[in-house]
Design goal:
By secondary structure, this protein is an alpha+beta fold. The protein contains 13 helices and 11 strands. β6 and β7 form a beta hairpin.
C-alpha cells in the first residue's frame, strides 16, 4: 500500500542542494531531461531561474535537505544573476542537447518497431508451419529451417546481443510465442558460449520444434478436469518422443537436433524425463533447451495466478535450481539476459521508476529504461540510456507495490515478449 506523497510549493530561491523537486510545467517546457529530480548544486538552481521557472513543487520525503525559509531569501524579481551570458549559453546548450536526445529517442523507437515487425513475422511463420506439420511435414520442416536461418543471421550480425522489449497484446500462453522464445534464448546462450554457426542453427531448430509433439495429444489432457493427475502426466510426458516422431519424417533433421528435442525436459541430476538421464549422458546442448524451457515455465506457469517476473525467475533458478543445469550454460544465460531483462520494472539511482526496454550483453548493468513521468504522454515517454546519463539500476520493483497510475503508464505485461536486434 503506497503512502500519498506530500508536496509543498517552493519559491525558486528556497532551493538548495538536496531538495527533491517536481517541475510545475510540462516536460517540453523546460530544458532539463527529467521533470523531477534532486537538486545537485546551486548552479542547477541558477539554471532553473534562468529558464524562467519561478516556483517548483518540493517533495520532503525524497529530499536530503530542507528548503531555505522563505523570509530569508530574496524575491525572484529582485535577485541579481551573475554570469548571465554564461547561464544563457548553458540553457541553450541544455535545450539543444535535450532536442538531440528526443531525436535519438524517435530513431530508437523506429528501431524497436522494426524489431517488433521481425518478431511478429517469426510468430506468423511458426504458426503457419505448425498448421502444416501433420499434413505436409516436409514443407513445415523446410519453413522451420528458413525461420531459424533468418534468426541466426540476425543474431550473428553483431558481436554483442541486444534484446528489445516488444509489444504483444496477447496475454495468454501462446505455443507459437513459446517456440520462438525458447529457440531465441537457446541460440543466445550458444552464441555467448562461442558455439559455431551450424551448431547455433541446430539448437535454434530444436528450440523451435521441441514441443511439436503436443499436436498428437488431445486437448483434454491439458484442459480437462476429469483426468487423473497421474494419467495426465503420463500422457503429456510422451510429447518429447512424439516430437521426434515428427522430426523422423524429414531427412534434413540431424540426429543432434532429435536428441536435443527428446531431452529438453531432462535435468543434470537425472530428475527429468523421459529417461532420467544425468548430464554426462545428455547431448551437450540439451540442458540449454531445458534451462530456457524451465525459465519460461516460471514466467508463465500453468497456474496463471503464480507467475514470476523475468528477474524473479532468474533469481529463483540461481538460488534453488542451479543444480539442474550446466553451470557454464547457466552463466551464459545470465550474461545474455542480464539480471534485469526487458520488461522488468526497476527503480533507478535517481529515484525514478521505469521499465527496462533494452539490454545489451556488453553492458548488462546499464539497460535502456522507459521512465514514468506523468507530465509526458506515454507514447512520448523518455527512454534513457542509463550509462550515458550516469544513472544505475537500484533494483527490480514488484508491480503490486506501485500506484495504479504508474502501472498503467509503464504497462508491464504478464507475458513480456522480447526479441533480438
Amino acid at each position: 500500500m503506497s503512502v500519498r506523497r506530500t508536496r509543498i510549493k517552493l519559491d525558486i530561491n528556497q532551493l538548495r542542494p538536496g531538495v527533491y523537486i517536481e517541475m510545475p510545467v510540462g516536460w517540453n517546457d523546460h530544458p532539463f531531461m527529467f521533470s523531477n529530480f534532486i537538486i545537485a548544486s546551486n548552479k542547477q538552481v541558477a539554471q532553473l531561474r534562468k529558464a524562467n521557472i519561478r516556483f517548483v513543487w518540493g517533495i520532503p520525503a525524497k529530499s536530503t535537505s530542507t528548503p531555505l525559509p522563505l523570509d530569508e531569501v530574496k524575491d525572484s524579481a529582485e535577485l541579481v544573476v551573475e554570469n548571465d551570458d554564461q547561464l544563457n549559453q548553458e540553457i541553450n546548450e541544455m535545450a539543444a542537447e535535450k532536442l538531440k536526445k528526443i531525436e535519438q529517442m524517435q530513431s530508437y523507437r523506429r528501431q524497436i518497431k522494426k524489431c517488433e515487425a521481425s518478431y511478429q513475422t517469426s510468430i506468423s511463420k511458426v504458426r503457419s508451419l505448425t498448421s502444416k506439420m501433420q499434413s505436409r511435414p516436409l514443407q513445415a520442416m523446410t519453413e522451420a529451417h528458413e525461420v531459424i536461418a533468418t534468426m541466426t543471421d540476425t543474431l550473428l550480425a553483431k558481436d554483442n546481443i541486444v534484446l528489445h522489449l516488444v509489444n504483444d497484446d496477447r496475454d495468454d500462453v501462446d505455443v507459437y510465442q513459446h517456440a520462438v522464445t525458447v529457440s531465441m534464448l537457446a541460440m543466445m546462450i550458444a552464441k555467448q558460449l562461442n558455439v559455431e554457426k551450424q551448431q547455433i542453427t541446430e539448437i535454434g531448430i530444436a528450440g523451435l520444434l521441441h514441443d511439436i509433439g503436443k499436436l498428437k495429444i488431445p486437448s483434454q489432457f491439458y484442459t480437462g478436469t476429469d483426468i487423473s493427475p497421474s494419467k495426465r502426466r503420463f500422457v503429456i510426458e510422451k510429447h518429447p518422443s512424439y516430437s521426434v516422431d515428427f522430426l523422423n519424417l524429414s531427412p534434413d533433421i540431424s540426429d543432434g537436433i532429435k536428441k536435443m528435442v527428446l531431452e529438453h525436459h531432462e535435468f543434470a541430476d537425472g530428475s527429468g524425463y523421459p529417461d532420467g538421464k544425468t548430464i554426462s549422458q545428455l547431448h551437450p546442448f540439451s540442458l540449454v533447451l531445458s534451462l530456457v524451457n524451465y525459465y519460461e515455465m516460471l514466467c508463465h506457469p500453468h497456474d496463471e495466478s503464480k507467475p514470476k517476473s523475468q528477474s524473479q525467475s532468474i533469481s529463483h533458478i540461481f538460488k534453488h535450481r542451479k543444480h539442474l543445469f550446466d553451470p557454464k550454460q547457466l552463466n551464459a544465460f545470465v550474461k545474455s539476459m542480464g539480471i534485469y531483462p526487458p520488461g522488468t520494472l526497476v527503480k533507478l539511482s535517481n529515484g525514478h521508476i521505469g521499465i527496462v526496454i533494452t539490454v545489451d550483453s556488453k553492458r548488462l548493468l546499464f539497460p535502456n529504461v522507459l521512465i514514468y513521468d506523468e507530465s509526458i504522454p506515454r507514447n512520448e515517454a523518455a527512454i534513457i540510456d542509463t550509462e550515458k546519463e550516469g544513472i544505475s539500476v537500484s533494483g527490480a520493483v514488484v508491480v503490486n507495490t506501485l500506484p495504479r497510475k504508474v502501472v498503467e503508464y509503464l504497462n508491464p505485461q504478464t507475458r513480456a515478449s522480447f526479441y533480438f536486434d
